[in-house]
Structure formats: C-alpha cells, structure tokens
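Please annotate this fold before class:
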Amino acid sequence: MFTLFQVSISLAQTSKQLYDIKSTVVDETTNEPLPYANVFNKQLAIGTATNIDGYFELPNNRVGDTIVISYLGFVQKVFIVQITHPKVLKLKPNSALLGEVVVTANDDYLYALVSKVKKNKKTKSRVSKTYFYLETKLFGEPVEIIESYYNGKYSNFGADELKIKKGRIGLKPSFGRYFSSTESSRLFSMQNVFLRSDLFPDNPLLFNRKRLKKKYKLKLNHTYVDKQSKVYVIDFNPREGGDDLFKGTVWIDQNKNRIIKITLNIQKSAKHPFLPIGFKSIGAVDMEITKSYKEIGGQLFIDNIDFNYDVVYTDRNGERIEANTTSFSKAYDYNEKFDLPLFEFSKGLHEDYRNITISDYDAFFWEGTKEFRFYDRLQKVGDFIKENHIEGNILYPKRKSSLQRLESPYVLWNKHRIKISQVPTSKLQEAAQTFSTQDLMTRGGVPGSFSGDRYHLDIKLYLDVNVIQDSLTFQLETVLDPIGTYYLFEISNTDLAFINMYFDLMEIQKRKLKKELVNLLKLSNPDIALITSLYLKHLDEFQKTSEEFVSEVNRGKNRKRMKEWSHDIYKILNVDNAKMFGLLDLDDAKE
C-alpha cells in the first residue's frame, strides 16, 4: 500500500542533472517528526535515514528516480524526483482499527498475545551490509564521533556479530579529558529481546503468561492493518517494585505471532553493560533502545537499532560528569556483503578503537561510498574527524593530554624502532622454571629446547581491497598485534634488534606483495579470489623466511648471522639495526 506523488528538490549539479533532496518527514495527523524513517533511491540503490528531528538529505539524485520513504506503522510513500518540492513530507498512519477490539482490565488476551511470540523467535542466520554511527556529547558539545561499516550476522531477532570493514573516529577533549566508547558496536549483539542478560534489565518477551502478569501492566495503544496482517501496538509498564525492568511499546503481527518492532526505556538503571575505565565509578544510567525488523525470505531480521544512553560518571576527584550518547545501526543490504580486510582481528577490550585505527584514513573509501549514510551530517562528521583524528595511538591535534596511549593499539611498521616492555622478574623466573621443567620431561634433558615457546611475535599483514565505481584500490599494512605478542626473557639491545628485524621481514614481504598488486592492476581488474591467493602466497613466504631467520640467529646470540641479516634488511628498508642497537663485532656466540 503506497501513495505516489511528486516532490521538488534543490539543485546540486546542473551540468550533470544531479539533485539533492532535503526535507523533513512527519506524521500527517500530529505533525510530529518521524526519527529514523528509511529513505531509499531505488535506481541508485543508495539510502539514508531521518535524524531525531525527522530531517534527511539524499544527494545526487536524477530526475525520474524513484524515492521510497517508509516507517513502521505508516503508509509507504513513493515519489518521482522532479524540480520542485515541499519542505515537509507527511506520512499517513496505517488504517487504525481501534473500535474492533475491546480489551478490559481483566482481559487475558494481551498477555497471551505477548507471551506467544517466543514460539517464533528462532530464525536462520543471514549476513547484511551494516552501517554504524555513534556520537557522544559532554556538556552539550560533541566529543566523540564514530562512523563505520560492517558485515553484520543476524539471527533469532538479534545481532550475532559485526565484522569490521572500515571505520573512522574523531575524539575531542573536554576540559582536559577524553571520553571514548571503545566497544559500542558490541552493544548491538549484547542485547537480545529474547535472552536474559546480567547486563540489561528484563523485558516482557522473556516471560511466560503467568509471570508476565505479575511483572507488567499491558495496555492496548491501537491496532492497524498492514499488508493484510493485523498489528497490535501494546504499551507495557512494570508493576510496582519493577525497578529492574524496561518499559516501552511492542508491535506484534497477530497473524504470524511475531514482533516487528519494540522500544525499551529505563531511567536510572543499576543494571547496564558499561565499565568505568579511567573513572572512579558509574552512577545512574538511562537507556532507550528501539529495534525494528523486516521480512527477508519469510523470516524477520534486524532492520535498524537505535541505542541511546545517558551515563553519569564520577571521576577520581569526585566530580560528576554526564555523557549523552546516540548510536544507530542499520542492516541495509541482505543481498550483498563487503569483501572484508584480509586480517585476523584480535578479540578483547577496546576492539572498536583498535580495529578502526589499524590503517591510515582511506579517503578513497569515504569519499566514494554511496550506499547508506547519514548524508545530512557528512560535512559535520568530516570536519570533526579531520580536526580530532587518531593516527596509530596518537590523538591529533597533539596536546599534553593527547599523549596518553590508547589501550593496546595495533602497531604499524615504520623506521622508528619498537620496544617491548620488560615483564616483571617474578614472571621471568616462573617462565624459566616452567620451560626448564618441560625440557627435562619431554626433550631428554636438552636445555633450551623450549626457548622458542617463551616468546611469540604476532606479526600480521593487513590487506583491504575496495572496488568503488569500477575503480579498485587497496590498503596494505605491516602490523604487530600487541594482544598476541609476548617475550618472556630479559630484554637487552640484542633482543630488541631481534624483535625489530623479525618485524622488518614482514615489511619486506609487504613491499613485494604491493609491487605485485600494482603490476596486476595495470594489466587487469582482478577479482578478490586472485588477490587473496597472492596475499596467502606472501604469508607463506614470510613464514619460511622468518623460520630461517629465527633458526640462524638464535634470538640474537649468533652475532655474525645477526649482522648479515641486518645488512640484507638495510639494503631494502634503509634501516641499520646493527648500528641502531649497537651489535658488537664479536665472534659467533655459542648456543
């Protein structure tokens, strides 16, 4: 069911006949703005969503393109791009059926309806291209913006995981402090309306009918018909004493016994997923979550999630600080998925920041991506991130307070030598004892057999390939992963030389791969499978080279071979490890 009408648009580029649509979407009956309404150009396959005030921008449309605006509970609106347009687009609510159902205070029908949806909570797993946006404000001013793309895996009315494709982050200090949401994308997979969690308050969909009646008061808001399905819109409020319960509204398709939308709200919740890293404690937490679903292949999957939260922190000086965060996730294409970077990302704390800042800013990707975005804030986001960006683990513009290190960032190769922190003496002694005992038990008493197990240098190669508007480009980085790296020996200059030279060997391999990729692109437009095979070939070559290096230099004890390997590295990278770490001209050390 839809209406067809014409709107005007403001001129964007006269010579190319491309136009920007700028308008506000509102409820026709109340004139209230409709936040996060879907706006989609069918011909160009690009889309956006309205902001909290119902406003949106969709650039570079052509005359004759079909634009579809949709919002759950409202009649879908379709229009053809023309030259003139209204500033406000009004959506008509679906036909209400308020008079058809009578529900009394003692009627059990609503409780039966809500409790039955659990029977249809299981769905298959599907992957969709996913857009994520987060903005945090302190004292009303933006201090953090994250924009990123993922392959999202969805099932059972929830988000299972988000695998990073590309992201960008801006951080701005406020009164000398930084506020960072280092794992906010995980919030979308942590909260599932059908699974109880220690991190979130309960909601009505977790309970059977008997317990639901004890926990909640249900009230019919209204009903309507959408695509021959009767939809019940039901408000739910906790009964007295339900301080650890969400309140909100749920939309239920009565014909198929399944939810199609739910809003969850709570104020001053003691149950939440936030940790006070760098702060003394967390006080009150307000949360507002909305989840909408769409039908794919006869089953419902996440369409979009908006997750807004206000958190009151207490710093080490006893000062209370309130942070206001709005975040939005959109699964916008279940028919396609991104070619993800060829890289094994580490799990653990601060994943978002570590994974997004692994490579330099990719202007080709951010300027060329025309799929789903908040186009109304492109300039704002671009300016904010340009002025307050992150390179490696350094925040720019540099200030005294910006010299703090982000937690466990990936380390990218450069000519500046890396250092690994010395582990405490007690751990060194424990490691020495452990591996000495293993030597005696399993290697016939040959000392030093397990010395290689006392360190692990987790050196990786990051490759991200992008095809945008028939152009292919790639980002390639040599990376040391601090999560998987350890070195359980006393660290001397010789050890540092050994560690850096090991890192250098992957950088040499990276440059060989880069040369092959550049030459390949000159001859053809290769597919991802061919590029992946080249990538794997060079990883295999590095494995063989690094094993030879480790065997010959014996962790730096064979000074002659160390110097020879250093010389070979110098010829390629112009980095003289032997000179920088003062390797002495001594006879070969014996094992």
